[in-house]
Structure formats: C-alpha cells, structure tokens
Amino acid sequence: MALDNETLTLLLDAVRRFVNERLVPAEDELASTGVMPEGIVQEMRELGLFGLSISPDYGGLGLTMEEEVRVVFELGQTSPAFRSLAGTNIGIGSQSIVMSGTDEQRNHYLPLLASGEVVGSFALTEPEAGSDAMSLRTSAVRDGDHYILNGTKRFITNAPIAGLFSVMARTSQERGADSISCFLVEAGTPGLTLGKPDKKMGQAGALTCDVVFEDCRVPASSLLGGKEGTGFRTAMRVLDKGRLHISALCVGIAERLVRDAARYALERKQFGQPIADFQLVQAMLADSQTELYAARCMVLDAARKRDRGENTTLEAACCKLYASEMVGRVADRAVQIHGGAGYMAEYAVERFYRDVRLFRIYEGTSQVQQVVIAREVLKAHR
C-alpha cells in the first residue's frame, strides 16, 4: 500500500466530505451552465485529486490501484463531470508518460499534471477511428528536428480546457502497432485548433470537442519516450488501469442511485403507505444492491491483482463490461422507482440516467470488452 491505513482513511473521509458538502450542492448549477466553478477546481487541486496515480517524486499521491478505486468510489457519488476534469491527469495522460516518457518529459510534465496546474487531454479517437484505433489517420512526418502533424481528433475529453495533449499519430503507413507514436503537444502550439464544444446527451460540464492539426510543427523532443512506434503499445498497457478506474466510477454512481431511490421510496406514499412497503419496489432495490455489490467486489479483486503485479487484462475487461452495464440497469430502476418524478429534471436520477449511458461506450465499448474477454478466455484454454 502507498498509504498507511490511517492516512488512507483520512483521505477517503476528506474526499467524502468534499463530495457531500461541495460537489453535490453544485451539481445542478454545473448541469445547467456546463461551467466548472473555479473554486471547486482549486479545492480539487488542494486535495490532490489530479495526482492520485502520480508518484510523490513528482508531487502526486502515488496511490496503488486499490487505493485509487476506493477514492473513485467516493468521487462517483456525484456528477461524473467533476471526476472527468481530473480523469486524464490520473489516467492515460499521465500514465503514458510514467511508463514510456523520457526523464526530461517526466520531470517537466508530471508535476504540472499532478498539481492540476495543467489539465491533460488524450487525443486518440478520430472520425474514422474509434474502436478500431489502429485505423487512425493523423500523420506525423519527420522534418529535421521537428515533426509536422496533420489530422482531426474527435470527442476529445477536456480538449477545450487542456494545457497538454497526448496525441496519437501515424509515423509510418504500415498497419501495425509499430506505426503509431504518441506526441506531447502543448495547447497554443501553432497549427493546433479546437472545434466547438460538443452538445451531448449527458455529462454536462465534462467538455469535449474536435482537435484539429494543420501543419502543426512540434519539436522532436515532444515524441513520447523519444522513440517512434511506442505510442499505441503504451496506450494498450494503460488501458487495464483506465478500465478499472471507470468501473469504480460506475460503482460509486450506482451507490448514489440506490441511496436516492431508497430515500424516495421511503418518503413517497401511494395507497396510504410508503411505496417502499411494496414488494415490487423492494425487488428493484434488491436487484440494484445485489448487482452493485457484485461490481464492487469485482473491481476490488481486480485492483488487488494488479497491485500484485498480475496481468489483469481479462479482469479489467470483465469489470468494465459488468459495471458499466450494471449502472445503466440501476439508473433505469431508480427512475422507475421515482415514477413520473424520475422523468423530471428536478430529481438527480433524471440526469444520472443520461450521464451513465456513456460508460458503455467510451474507454472501450461493451462489445469491445466482450471481444477482449473472449480472446483471453480462449487464449487460456488453447
């Protein structure tokens, strides 16, 4: 463990208080304006939420995977947009540098990401390359001591506010992992432009937009690790971690939804009694709690295996598939328990119902997780 039990308990208590006292009361404003209050961003920095996974050597907390998912369980108790702000700094935006960056890249960027002074953004998805990331077309052509980037990225999280983009680009026209590299491109670099913020079904405040590179000239020192062909492999190595992180977020949101649904059921009366007295309402709560418990156990088990150094590709895909589908079912039941009120924006379940739909799509769709799981099962039994 990175932290002793007492310190971890203090951290979890602090995050829980922050969520309950600061984030939950700010949910409605964030949903209506799409603007993250600067005061809350600063408090997130002070709590160390941007540097959960980054080593203390660079100013982070350096949490283990189990510790990280336990923090994310707490962050999931509120709008996922708050967690999304720090998500890239915690995940692939920093971990790619941790795993494959040069000493110079680590020393320069990791402290900025850990402190939240710079918000990271991971630019992989393109108009014609989503689940099939190997088909990306953004090119990076060597020109002396520089590379020239051309291409368009789509649905890029945090792009409108990012200070650093981790950009996946093709350095060879061959199809294969060796043809794709990663570049660390700072916001404001000539040739880098942003599209209009996307209008989404949910997760207001979690900003996304297109990122366009037109003859964007970056120094060769921006190549991750100083070596071509490592970008795609590095991204795949950190996918397991990202999938566990998102799975933990789904668990946290499901806990919030079960709590909200149970409280409403105890307060709402029909036929002269609380609807919580009706067994069919109880059944929906029971099913939700059971699935939530199963997902929580899966995530903790997989996180502990990762911390022991075991390969968790199979377990991470199982967690992502089950937890993201689970929270969708829990959200649906929560709306049903609220009845007509659940369809109204006055209640948080209406917003969460839309918010959680994304978890079955990004960080690898449910169908991609099924493919990964089947591949790993067949590999183990050949």
UniProtKB/TrEMBL annotation:
<feature type="domain" description="Acyl-CoA dehydrogenase/oxidase N-terminal">
    <location>
        <begin position="6"/>
        <end position="117"/>
    </location>
</feature>
<dbReference type="Pfam" id="PF00441">
    <property type="entry name" value="Acyl-CoA_dh_1"/>
</dbReference>
<feature type="domain" description="Acyl-CoA oxidase/dehydrogenase middle">
    <location>
        <begin position="121"/>
        <end position="216"/>
    </location>
</feature>
<dbReference type="InterPro" id="IPR036250">
    <property type="entry name" value="AcylCo_DH-like_C"/>
</dbReference>
<dbReference type="InterPro" id="IPR009100">
    <property type="entry name" value="AcylCoA_DH/oxidase_NM_dom_sf"/>
</dbReference>
<dbReference type="GO" id="GO:0009083">
    <property type="term" value="P:branched-chain amino acid catabolic process"/>
</dbReference>
<comment type="pathway">
    <text>Amino-acid degradation; L-valine degradation.</text>
</comment>
<keyword id="KW-0285">Flavoprotein</keyword>
<dbReference type="GO" id="GO:0050660">
    <property type="term" value="F:flavin adenine dinucleotide binding"/>
</dbReference>
<dbReference type="Pfam" id="PF02771">
    <property type="entry name" value="Acyl-CoA_dh_N"/>
</dbReference>
<protein>
    <submittedName>
        <fullName>Acyl-CoA dehydrogenase</fullName>
        <ecNumber>1.3.8.1</ecNumber>
    </submittedName>
</protein>
<dbReference type="InterPro" id="IPR013786">
    <property type="entry name" value="AcylCoA_DH/ox_N"/>
</dbReference>
<dbReference type="InterPro" id="IPR037069">
    <property type="entry name" value="AcylCoA_DH/ox_N_sf"/>
</dbReference>
<keyword id="KW-0274">FAD</keyword>
<comment type="similarity">
    <text>Belongs to the acyl-CoA dehydrogenase family.</text>
</comment>
<dbReference type="GO" id="GO:0016937">
    <property type="term" value="F:short-chain fatty acyl-CoA dehydrogenase activity"/>
</dbReference>
<keyword id="KW-0560">Oxidoreductase</keyword>
<dbReference type="InterPro" id="IPR006089">
    <property type="entry name" value="Acyl-CoA_DH_CS"/>
</dbReference>
<keyword id="KW-0101">Branched-chain amino acid catabolism</keyword>
<dbReference type="InterPro" id="IPR006091">
    <property type="entry name" value="Acyl-CoA_Oxase/DH_mid-dom"/>
</dbReference>
<dbReference type="Pfam" id="PF02770">
    <property type="entry name" value="Acyl-CoA_dh_M"/>
</dbReference>
<feature type="domain" description="Acyl-CoA dehydrogenase/oxidase C-terminal">
    <location>
        <begin position="229"/>
        <end position="377"/>
    </location>
</feature>
<dbReference type="InterPro" id="IPR046373">
    <property type="entry name" value="Acyl-CoA_Oxase/DH_mid-dom_sf"/>
</dbReference>
<dbReference type="InterPro" id="IPR009075">
    <property type="entry name" value="AcylCo_DH/oxidase_C"/>
</dbReference>
